[in-house]
Every structure is written in structure tokens, then in C-alpha cells.
């Protein structure tokens, strides 16, 4: 594989999943980790991604409350967020996860709706703090510098003390058989706690992530009440999910 093809694969993977591990890409491309490390270093120098310890993250993932035009598939993620808004009602208590799709939902929350929103995402909390009728409660803990979310025992303990109407979460990987998975063990533990704290869990995911999986399991697909993609619910790409007890939007 040519260097240009290899680097394009790296960019595609990091844009889709927000974060990647060097070991995973090296295995996928059947090259040495040193080769992938050099590629990532070059791509970082060209400002196409950001190199972090053991991997890389997308530029769209290194965002804050300001609008970030580097977000991958922004139009599709906006469509997903717009669909999710239909679930919000005055007086609801919700949780919004970290990640670029969940941040789009936070941005689109109407200013005239009364909500209480828990979040462990710094960008989501900052975005919602601009909305006068939204009470924002940050779930504290150790801050993951890459994801800009709180993780660890304190965050998990705090989540165990609450009960929300809807938990809006993202995922790195989703499959109709294997469920939701991630490569980050700490993130998985927080997502498990979110699912336990929610009366209904809503997954926000672009369709490119469908039929993918990784090392650590967050939950079975049936633990999700609703899955929202940018696709129409009748789209054939969602057929493998129809046999599960899950609502498709």
C-alpha cells in the first residue's frame, strides 16, 4: 500500500471514530507501529489530525463550545440531532453524552424549553450554559483530556445517584449482534453508568458506524430503547436491527 493510501485510511478511521489506536491501524494495514507512528506524526504536522499518546484524535473532536467546522459528517450529525429534539419535553430531566453528535444536540436545544440536563462533557456543558431555561449539572470526575469528559470512579458514583428520563449517548462502534463497543475501557464504564441511570437510552450514531465493533462492550443492542441515525427508519441498512427490541428513528 502506498504511503498516500495508508494515510488516507488513517484519516478516514480517525474521522469516523473520533479516536484511533496506533496498534489497531497497524494491524488493519499489516504494517509496523513505527510506520503508523510516522504517518500520524506527519498528518499532525499537516494539521489533519492531532497526535496523542498511543493514537490520534480528529480535529473535530478537539472542540469546545465554539462552532467547529472540522466535524466529520456534520450535516448527517445535525440531522440526527434534529430528530432527537422531538423527544424533548418541558420539564424533562436528561443526560447528554460527550462526542460531536451529542454536541450538535446540545447546540440545537431550543432556548424556550425548560430542561434539567446532566452531562459529563465540558463542551456540552458550555454550550448548554448559554440557554437560559436549561439547568445544567456537570457530572464531575477525572477529566479525559482527549474526550473532554469526566471519567473514573467519581463520575460513575455520581451517575448512580441520578435518574433521568432520557440518556442521549454516542458510541464508537455499533453492531446488531455485538451491541455497542469502544476501545476505551474508562469510557465504557461511564456509558454503562449512564444507561443504568436512564429510564430510556437513546443512541445517536451516523450510519457509517453500523456493523462495526471493538474490544470493550458497553451493552447489548437491546439495552438501547431508540437508535437515531441520519437514515430514514425504513432504510435497508437498518434491516439487521429490526429483529431487536429497539425503536429506529
Structure in words:
This protein has eight helices and 15 strands. The protein is globular. β10 and β11 form a beta hairpin. It has helices at residues 3-17, 22-29, 33-45, 74-85, 100-108, 122-128, 153-160, 185-197; strands at 19-21, 50-52, 55-57, 92-96, 115-119, 134-138, 142-144, 149-151, 164-169, 173-175, 179-182, 198-204, 216-219, 226-228, 247-248. α2 (22-29) packs across α3 (33-45). The chain has 249 residues and is of the alpha/beta class. It has a seven-stranded parallel sheet with strand order 6-5-4-9-12-14-15, sandwiched between helices.
How would you summarize the topology of this molecule?
Elements: H1 3-17, E1 19-21, H2 22-29, H3 33-45, E2 50-52, E3 55-57, H4 74-85, E4 92-96, H5 100-108, E5 115-119, H6 122-128, E6 134-138, E7 142-144, E8 149-151, H7 153-160, E9 164-169, E10 173-175, E11 179-182, H8 185-197, E12 198-204, E13 216-219, E14 226-228, E15 247-248
Parallel strand pairs: 4-5, 4-9, 5-6, 9-12, 12-14, 14-15
Antiparallel strand pairs: 1-3, 2-3, 7-8, 10-11, 11-13
Amino acid at each position: 500500500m502506498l504511503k498516500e493510501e495508508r494515510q488516507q485510511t488513517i484519516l478516514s478511521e480517525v474521522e469516523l471514530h473520533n479516536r484511533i489506536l496506533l496498534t489497531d491501524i497497524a494491524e488493519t494495514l499489516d504494517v509496523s507501529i513505527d510506520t503508523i507512528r510516522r504517518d500520524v506524526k506527519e498528518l499532525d504536522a499537516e494539521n489533519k489530525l492531532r497526535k496523542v499518546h498511543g493514537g490520534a484524535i480528529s480535529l473535530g473532536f478537539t472542540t469546545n463550545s465554539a462552532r467547529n467546522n472540522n466535524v466529520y459528517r456534520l450535516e448527517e450529525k445535525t440531522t440526527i440531532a434534529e430528530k432527537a429534539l422531538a423527544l424533548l419535553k418541558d420539564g424533562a430531566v436528561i443526560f447528554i453524552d460527550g462526542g460531536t453528535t451529542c454536541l450538535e444536540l446540545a447546540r440545537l436545544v431550543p432556548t424556550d424549553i425548560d430542561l434539567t440536563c446532566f452531562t459529563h462533557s465540558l463542551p456540552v456543558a458550555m454550550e448548554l450554559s448559554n440557554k437560559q431555561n436549561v439547568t445544567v449539572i456537570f457530572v464531575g470526575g477525572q477529566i479525559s483530556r482527549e474526550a473532554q469528559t469526566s471519567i473514573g470512579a467519581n463520575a460513575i458514583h455520581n451517575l448512580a445517584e441520578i435518574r433521568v428520563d432520557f440518556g442521549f449517548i454516542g458510541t464508537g462502534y455499533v453492531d446488531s449482534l455485538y451491541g455497542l463497543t469502544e476501545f476505551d475501557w474508562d469510557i465504557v464504564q461511564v456509558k454503562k453508568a449512564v444507561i443504568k441511570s436512564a429510564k430510556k437510552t437513546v443512541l445517536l450514531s451516523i450510519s457509517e458506524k453500523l456493523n462495526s465493533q471493538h474490544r470493550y462492550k458497553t451493552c447489548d443492542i437491546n439495552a438501547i430503547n431508540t437508535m437515531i441515525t441520519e437514515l430514514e427508519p425504513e432504510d435497508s441498512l437498518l434491516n439487521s436491527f429490526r429483529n431487536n427490541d429497539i425503536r429506529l428513528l
